[in-house]
Amino acid sequence: MIKKIILLLTIFITSFTYAQQVKIAGKVLNYQKQPLENVSVSQLYSRNGVMTNARGEYLILVSSGDSVRLVFSLLGYNQHQYILPRLEKNIELDVILEEDNRELNVVTVEGQRTVTTVIERIDYLATKRASSPWGSLESLLVTMGGVSTNNELSSQYSVRGGNFDENIVYVNGLEIYRPLLVRSAQQEGLSFINPNMIKSVGFSAGGYSAEYGDKMSSVLDITYRKPEKSEGSASTSFLGGDVHVGNSSGRFSQITGIRYKTIRSLMNTTDTKAEFDPSFFDIQSFMAYNLSSKWEVNFLGNYSHNLYKYTPRTRNTSFGTLNMLRNFTVYFDGQEKDKFLTYQAALTLKGRVNNNLNIGITGSTFASDEQERYDIEGRYLLKEFDESGIGVTDDSSVLGIGTYMEHARNKVESEVYTFTHFGDFKVDSHLLKWGLTYQREIIKDKIKEWEMRDSAGYSLPNTGIDVNMYSNLKSDNHINSSRFSGFLQDTYRLKTEKGLFILNAGFRAAYWTFNEEFIFSPRGALAFVPEGMDNLSVRLAGGIYYQAPFYKEFQRIVNVGGNNIIELNKDIKSQKSIHIILGGDYYFRGKDQGTSPFKLSGELYYKNMSDLIPYTVNNVKIRYSGENSAKGYVMGLNLKLYGEFIPGADSWISFGLMKAQQDIEGIKVPLPTDQRYNFALFFQDYFPGYERLRMSLRGLLSHGLPVSAPYKGYENGYFRTPAYKRVDIGFSWQILGEDFAIRNKNSFCKAFKNIWLGLDVFNIFDMQNTNTYYWVSDVYNQQYAVPNYLTGRQLNVKLMAEF
User: Fold this and answer.
1) Which has the closest alpha carbon to 332: 275, 286, 376, 391?
2) How many CA atoms lie within 13 A of 333 on its CB side?
3) In angstroms, how far is the first alpha carbon of the chain from the final one?
4) pLDDT (tens digit, 9 = 90+) per residue, 219-252?
5) How many helices (H) and strands (E) does the chain have?
6) Which of 249, 233, 145 is nearest to 196 (CA)?
7) Neighbours of 283 (CB within 10 A)
8) Does residue 481 register a pLDDT over 60?
9) φ/ψ bin of 518: left (φ > 0), alpha (ψ from -120 to 50), beta (otherwise)
């Protein structure tokens, strides 16, 4: 009897609950009336949510009788919120989403498109919420699958076995260059990309389409936005500050950002005690003017002024193992003064000829003035420690004693002028794109540097007859060359009973007058979304990718009378890489079907490389051999789990396995960027019921990199640095928001939209990471590798206001 009563009650309650639900259904489109898939449709303040299908359709059940707030959101689009009054019957609600141009502090519930190309859209909104020394886009990028870094002071990154020079970066279609002389991360200054100005970010770790230039590893495609109304922000911290303003008035819009960075506090956590007086400053502006409803002219300009002054005093480094403890002490004299000035600008005219045809032209220029001057003398003592960590008192503990001196007077001036025509044409299910580019390069350099080492009164290397420099380098070169390049590609969408097929195929061609080389690069990608399985997509991509040499790659060192002279190798060829990539994405939900979806992505890749130019890496300085004397391959697997573990806060975990090997004239050694494993985590959270207090966590773990002795290639022996381990955590508290009552009562507070106060703890576990090694020698010319440790634990307080 009791069981029957319980069963009847269950049926009654279930029927009653179902009867109290109504259906809200409709479509979600963009402004071109195209359906948007995987838009998150959720009921505010509940775990009730669904996703749109490939036709942009959705159906969500809500309780009747009460008002309902529905939130529509998709990564890259403005979030829309609808308040529906008391619902008594089923309704239809169609929604149009516009592309996102809001500031980064806005809380969004961001969905994700099904990836049908090899360009992945990056959640740039998390950039300012990420805890990292610079808060740059690159600090977020290194947590993606296949991307890694081993230096938190640098904005450079390695992608699937490629070096920094193999990554191409575009901002509004303009290729971004970096200074050629920079040799340490401390000198780098600011990344070109200003997070305050970003509209969208696309990234590919390989297999990208023909519209992107001739690089072997990756492409980062940034688009700056055009404000629709007045906006601005300002922030300051122990590491610098920034300010940006934007506005729109009739046909004209502009957004301008100014940034300043300092590294004094960070460098105080290293082993070297020194006087740092860096000054890193840049200003960027993006302006647009509508000539008519169809034609627009825009301007992008950047000026970067980086001064690096460094006066070392002392250094004390302990290293080794429990059974082989060493201590390296240095007393310095001298200083270093570097200057890196860069200018970059582009003027673009583009327009719509008709509904199917768009064309445009761009003229751009890049110029740099780089100077490196240093005279630093160091008197060092290398001693052995006992197991207690206390120095042995007798003379037998001294392993090396001596002096070294480093001198440089280096100068590089470069100018790059570019003229480009581009366009696209849409016909039926085809989208044709093309581009033609002419580029003029003028580069002058004068390099004069040498290093002297003296151990126990003997100059090294000691021949017994002459006094020689340990190393020296001299260059006085000038290049004036032209490049011609172009591409043509087609994107074709085919809807069948089996599902949706998307084919992207095209080619690039280029010619360089310096070495009279012509290269041809076919590329293609095929994506498939099965019918009835909108949560799954698979893709296959590949092609031939060239690394067109740009000055450093064709510098060859020759020995003339005991001096090392840099000459330009006119027989140099472009490095070649054949990409094959198989990947897929799968969307799923947790046990609670009301939760936001998760996305699991994976890619298998293989790169076969030929005509490689061997190189060594010291900090961020890449020194090429100047000869096409190697070949190699890279193979691996990348996995990434992405999702909103809590609404409005994106998080992800990425993991990669890789092997990168080269063959240098018959000797097989790893590539300098060979990392067998790589793990990264980015996690965001906020206190339940108190969203004003948030947390972000960034963790990195990667395999150590191969290291060789200076002025010797990896083919002459190598070892690996320890694994790179780092965890950064940040907290932010919203002390003023648009919905705060005080804004309506206080005229000063009303001037601000939001004010955030933040606290970061960099390298929270104070892990010692090795960047490079300093090599010292004894009188027998035996070398010891002394690790150069990176930064330790560091606190940072920041304040950000938006108006």
Assistant:
1) 376
2) 6
3) 68
4) 999 999 899 888 999 999 888 899 999 999 889 9
5) 4, 48
6) 233
7) 14
8) yes
9) beta
> Mind listing the pLDDT tens digit for each residue in 751-766?
788 888 989 999 999 9
CA dihedral 99, 100, 101, 107 (to 10 degrees): 160
For the stretch 613-672, pLDDT in tens is: 999 888 888 999 999 999 999 999 999 998 876 666 678 899 999 999 999 988 999 999
DSSP classification of residue 390: P
Q: Which pair of tokens denotes residue 774?
A: 């300093």
**Distances 650 to 37, 234, 270, 595 between C-alpha atoms, Å:** 18, 24, 33, 13
Give CA–CA dist 723/761, Å, rounded.
21
Residues 318-334 pLDDT 10s: 887 767 788 889 999 99
Torsion, CA 529, CA 533, CA 537, CA 538, rounded to 10: -80
193: its two tokens: 């990309």
Q: For residues 145 and 680, what is the distance between their CA atoms, to the nearest angstrom?
A: 8
Where does residue 427 rank: exposed (0-12), middle (13-18), buried (19+ CB within 10 A)? Answer: exposed
Q: Quick one: average pLDDT of 404-431?
A: 93
User: What pTM value is reported for the model?
Assistant: 0.82
Distance from C-alpha of 258 to C-alpha of 282, rounded to nearest angstrom: 6
CA distance 648 to 125: 11
Q: Is 58 exposed, middle or buried (0-12, 13-18, 19+ CB in 10 A)?
A: buried
Q: Which residues contact 553 (CB under 8 A, 6 or more apart)?
A: 165, 547, 572, 575, 613, 624, 626
**5 — phi, psi (to 5°)?**
-65, -45
Are residues 482 and 465 in contact, defined by beta-carbon separation less than 8 angstroms? Answer: no
Residue 743 · residue 749 · CB < 8 Å? yes
Helix (H) or strand (E) holding 235: strand 231-237
Q: Which residues pair with 604 in a beta bridge?
A: 582, 637
Q: Peptide bond preceding 461: is omega within 30 degrees of 0, i.e. cis? A: yes
| C-beta of residue 259 within 8 angstroms of C-beta of residue 246 | no
Specify the range with the lowest mean pLDDT, choosing from 94-108, 362-376, 487-501, 657-671.
94-108
Strand partners, 471: 451
Report the distance separating Cα 509 and Cα 541, nearest Å.
Answer: 19
Grade residue 144 by pLDDT with cuts at 50, 70 and 90: confident
> To the nearest whole number, what is the mean pLDDT of the chain?
84
The length of the chain is 803
Which whole number is the average pLDDT over 737-743? 70
Q: Which is more confident, 644 or 583?
A: 583
Judged against a pLDDT cut of 90, whether residue 104 lies above it is answered with no
pLDDT of residue 514 exceeding 50: yes
Relative to beta strand 272-276, strand 68-73 is unpaired
SS3 state at 1: coil
For strands 555-560 and 563-568, give the pairing.
antiparallel
Q: What tens digit of pLDDT does each residue of 40-68 get?
A: 888 776 667 788 887 888 888 887 766 67
Rounded CA separation 692/680 (Å): 26
Largest pairwise CA distance in the chain: 111
Q: Report the alpha-carbon angle 630-632-637, nearest 5.
A: 160
Contact at 8 Å (CB) between 501 and 494? yes
Q: Give the residue carrying structure tokens 């009747």.
A: 64
558-566 CB contacts, 8 Å cutoff, 24+ apart: 562/468, 563/472, 563/474, 564/471, 564/472, 564/473, 564/474, 565/474, 565/475, 566/447, 566/473, 566/474, 566/475, 566/477
* Residues 6 or more apart in contact with residue 426 via CB below 8 angstroms: 356, 357, 432
